[in-house]
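Much of our argument rests on the idea that a fold can be written as discrete symbols. Part of our work consisted of pairing the sequence of a single chain with a tokenised description of its backbone. No coordinates are needed to read the tokens, only the vocabulary itself. The record that follows shows the chain in one-letter code together with its fold in token form.
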Amino acid sequence: MSVLRSMAQIASTVHPHVSRRMTVATEYKLLLCCFLSVISVSLSSDTLSGENLAATEEAAKTAFFETHIRPLLVDHCYECHSRESGESDGNLLLDSAASLLKGGDRGPALIPGKPQQSLLLRVVHYREKDLQMPPKGKLSDRQIESLRQWIESGAFDPRTEPANSSGDAEKKTGTSHLDRDPRTHWAFTPPVRHVGESVPGADTEDPIDAFAALAAKKTDIASNQRADRVTLIKRLYFDLTGLPPSHSEIEAFAATTRRDAYQRLVDSLLASPFFGERFARHWLDVARYADTVGYALGGKERRISGSHHYRDWTIRAFSEDMPYDEMIQHQLAADRTDPDNEHGNLEAMGFLTLGRQFLNPLDTIDDRIDVITRGLLGLTVSCARCHDHKFDPIPTEDYYALGGIIASSQRPKNGASPLMLVDKPNPVDSPVLIRGQPGNRGAVVPRRFLTALQADGESRFTDGSGRKELAQRIATAENPLTARVMVNRVWTILVGRPLVNSPSDFGFRTEKPAIPEVLDDLAADFATHWSIKKLVRRIVLSKIYQQSSSGNDTALTKDPENRLLARGNRRRRDFESLRDAMLAVSNNLDFSQGGEPVVITGNKPAPRRTVYAMIDRQNLPSLFRTFDFANPDAHSPGRYFTTVPQQALFLMNSPQMMAIAKATATSARPRTITSPDLRSQVTSLFTQVLGREPTVDELQASVEFLEEPSRVPVPNVDPRSLWSYGAGKVAPTDSRTISEFHAFRHFQENRWQAGPKFPTAFPFSHAFLGKSGGHTPSDPDMGTIRRYTAPRDEVITVSGNVAHNSEQGDGVVFSIHAKGEIIYESTQFHSSQTHGPHTIRLQAGETIDFVATSGTTSSFDSFGWTARLQSTSTQGNSTDRDTETHFSGPFTPEKTLPLDRLEQLSQILILSNEFAFVD
């Protein structure tokens, strides 16, 4: 091969001034001549035999292919059409001669000797709008000519790998992952019950305990003993209710002599209304629940009407222990299971309809396919939108079979529930969109179930859209994935680590659990009754669940991830449990259930449980993001747990925490004693917050702390006071400054305006500012201004949305001014735009002006403008400044009194790891 390469180099470098002008055909002939010359010198005779001549020609063709054709295919085609990449778009592979001749969905890729009839040459010419490859950009004229000459000369191809061959690993099970029998993967086989092998001396309550004990014994790891009762009651309360037990409840459980005390505690917590709230919040992550659509075009309402009904239905379903298979059917097809909403189950369809709003309806279909398949089946079917799945037995046709089901469903205008879907009168099948492009349609796919999970002889869906049939095929014990996926989710909630590490991906690349019998036995049992409470009860009664979380060197070395279940997992409270626990210990928790969502980011703590918080998916407050809340834009397989400074800064500095600390201390402070007993106050505070009495050292240190004089803290800033509203002169663009700011002094009908009457006189006329927009002044040299003034040195990150909705007028000019610069500028006419993020560094007292000015005329210049500012201080403390949340009429700034020593101690205890961690 080195000789061949040398000859190719000779052909192109001996006469560079000639080679730059030669055609591909000339180069091909020159290569052949060079080879003939070299070979003739090396032969012993003066003439070439026919056999040697043929070999020489083949060598020249090989050199041309290796020099011009293979690199072109590798660089521009293999990414989407090769076995190595796992891609075969349009069922076309280009990494072997046989595959090229076989072709894909559109027939052979080439016809040797006939370039004009070869698909490969057609697509690279870019002459057909829906048939242009490679998609990233057209090949050069020289590359296209190389392909043409190669095909014309017979398309010699030395690659000998046969079509549909992909190595020894797949020869055992099929030619590719699409041909592989799904039943060769553990997750696609039905789960079965197992008989646990007894382990002498092992403490076991359930067969799953025996499986874990045997696995630990084989690895020479000693399983932990059961945790003490104080730990167990805290663990159970956290897992089943999300709330802390009171000191009296802990003492009573620890002191009881009843042998069935633990079982009775489990049953009482399962019957608690708090169980439904706790488990519903976990499911809302799966369902990507939110109360707003996200981005809304043209200033349309972003709040989803009735969103909270789905949240309340989910709470009720878990509280009443609705069978899981029934829950699935209601969430996918309640228009058929409860069409008149007689039992309130139409609200369950929020599972499908509460996703993010997309401008492209194909993205809405994709979002719903994703939440169904990842959420219920643990399969990443959305990966097959543009091509066959890289790794799993999910062809593109499967995606569009489900896409037809979703496309055949619609929101009724006057339905019994705002969250429901119904079947369209004339359901349709969906064509495959090749590479996901709407203009590149392939074969039409009938509405049906996933190929890998179909029963023998299973037909297409024919009942309306097919949603009911889809729900029935998912919610059945015959489906090997449904029970496994839900059991793995419940196990993760209760034990802290999943049995299957990718809870929403049970595909071919996913390893089986370290102890597969645990998952299989639980799943097979669960599929006989579908009761979430029975499943939870079985897990929490197991010895695995009750084990101590203490570790030893041997276990930590041999099994650092605790996959063999030989010890408990230490866990931190999630965002909802942490916030609810703080409200509980401060006696501020409102236990009422259901209803409209509440904003929990104000200066005062909202008393409702966190499951009832307003979830704004476009402007998710930093409080949620700081404490690792799930992204509501898409299905979430699980929460991340991070430790970042912003968490501690919020707990130390936020007005909410000040209020919680004061309320907690008030409960511990006697009201009638003039000379308080500091020791009793400390003891009362410890039992209230931590559920135990202080140790001798803690008591002494706390009393000494209370005896010290308090320090005066820096007062908190009311965010409403940082905004002012008015109009001002907009100087020429080269100076980029605002002058003559006139503050609006009159607040009427929830808006700021220049005078008591509206409209006012020139130059303001219809100018006003409200929560989410306003109107420009009549003077074209002026603009309405929403001004933010920095209370400290800080870095501001700004993002927002501007909109002009009227079809008349000439639009509105939007600009952001800061530090003598225009940070952002755009003109909108019957249009909208999302802007940011913009980063601005401010010193205390500096301003940011959000300016809206008219075009040539000020007619029809009402506009929408919402913005969110994230303020980060030099100390790293992050705070939200929101144009809607912090919009206000005249108000009296709230005064925050400094914390006294007892209040500071209560805050310290809430900040402790003992409060934040379960055990």
